[in-house]
Design a protein that fits this description.
426 residues, 72% helix, 20 helices, 0% strand
Length: 426
């Protein structure tokens, strides 16, 4: 008599939905509930906060372990330097293009024209931004344990890179330590998978809160700013990123756009490129075929220094503030904005609200009134959603191009080709 094993049925409408579809449902329901409840929707914010806290729990150990494993898996320090150089050049180059797009759209749409504001009409909300020299000096942690505890991502990256290089140079003596980091990294990937199952519910809570708090009343007066930022973000991803994938990588841009749906949705709602890192790594490996070594090195690096969406937002907002206060900018000012935003992106944390600090640095550099930040702050959350999504899409694009250039991109996975089934023996 044959034994039968019973397995619980998991079929059902909700369980059969792909993660991105669940997230989309959560977003739509959140907006509807927030619109109906109004300010009372803030009572749903803890659901989103719970999800964000779970994501934040992953960031430091995931970045640290992923980078150490990524560096040690290369074995060749020259290869690591080559990949790092390619990544940084691509990240900074695309950032310069992004802010140029933002400036161009703000020039065409003139969102601040006709406001005729004066500095005395608003209150300054700027915080003192660190200088480039301070940012460079602060990259080296005086105490790595403090950097890990404080979640200073830039310092963590520097320490992880240094430790990874040292372990690689140690050879066989370092193999036990490398295996420990590999085991920890695998544990973090599994924990990430579990946390991501909470995404649709967290997204629902966050979107309900945003819709209830801001509503159409606060969006309408600044509709041009929002439109310019969102149009710019779409152009940058759909035209520029896809164009690079097609021309430089010789890959299908459609497959790239399909693969970024999940991480872009998470980035849109959490407004944290660092917090979206678990979803970004998962998409890079499983949807786009980027190798473990490349994704573990390029993506955590991009979560810190790639701020394309933030740079584009700064281009729009800087010109909006100049127009609102009736200040004419010269071509030299435009170039200064591009250069400052590109360099400042290196030290900007990938967390919600970091763009306002970076914007204050840009405004100060070109002599625009910092009082303008008070205007932008009201819709910063709405803009933050779009710019964070672009940051994450850029991280994925660079990982694909670097992986292709290093022959560490599985094009069968990228193109969605299923492995051929094994032939049955007669």
């Amino acid at each position: 008599m044959q034994e039968t094993t019973l397995t619980p049925s998991r079929s059902g409408f909700w369980s059969d939905l792909a993660l991105w579809k669940k997230i989309l449902v959560g977003m739509i329901l959140g907006v509807l509930v927030g619109a109906v409840m109004g300010p009372d929707a803030e009572m749903l914010k803890p659901i989103g906060t719970l999800f964000i806290n779970a994501i934040k729990m992953l960031i430091v150990p995931l970045v640290f372990c992923s980078l150490v494993v990524g560096v040690t898996s290369m074995q060749d320090t020259r290869k690591m330097g080559r990949i790092g150089l390619k990544s940084v050049v691509l990240y900074l180059g695309t950032t310069a293009v992004a802010i140029t797009i933002g400036l161009g759209l703000a020039t065409i749409l003139t969102p601040g024209a006709g406001l005729n504001m004066s500095p005395a009409e608003t209150a300054a909300v700027a915080k003192e931004a660190p200088t480039l020299v301070q940012t460079l000096l602060n990259m080296i942690p005086k105490n790595p344990i403090n950097a890990l505890a404080a979640g200073n991502i830039l310092q963590i990256i520097v320490f992880a890179l240094g430790l990874g290089i040292a372990l690689t140079l140690c050879g066989e003596k370092a193999e036990p330590a490398i295996k420990v980091f590999e085991s920890l990294a695998e544990g973090m990937y599994k924990l990430t998978e579990l946390v991501m199952k909470l995404a649709p519910y967290g997204v629902f809570g966050l979107m309900a809160w945003v819709a209830g708090k801001y509503g159409l009343e606060i969006l309408l007066p600044l509709a041009k700013v929002i439109a310019a930022a969102y149009i710019g973000c779409l152009i940058h991803v759909v035209v520029f990123y896809s164009g690079l994938i097609s021309t430089v990588g010789r890959l299908s841009p459609v497959r790239y756009l399909k693969g970024l749906v999940n991480p872009a949705a998470v980035a849109f709602t959490t407004t944290s490129s660092s917090g979206t890192l678990p979803a970004t790594i998962k998409a890079a490996r499983e949807e786009m075929g980027v190798s473990k070594g490349i994704s573990s090195f390029v993506l955590p690096l991009g979560a810190t220094i790639n701020m394309d969406g933030t740079a584009l937002y700064q281009g729009v907002c800087a010109l909006f503030i100049a127009q609102a206060f009736g200040i004419d900018l010269s071509m030299a000012d435009y170039l200064l904005i591009i250069m400052t935003s590109t360099l400042a992106s290196i030290g900007t944390a990938g967390v919600p609200g970091a763009g306002l600090i970076m914007l204050s640095l840009v405004l100060t550099t070109v002599g625009l009134p910092l009082e303008g930040l008070a205007i932008v702050a009201g819709i910063d959350r709405i803009l933050d959603m779009a710019r964070t999504s672009v940051n994450v899409c850029g991280d994925l694009m660079v990982s694909v191009l670097v992986g292709k250039s290093e022959n560490e991109l599985d094009e069968d996975i990228y193109n969605g080709i299923e492995p051929a089934p094994a032939k049955e023996l007669a």
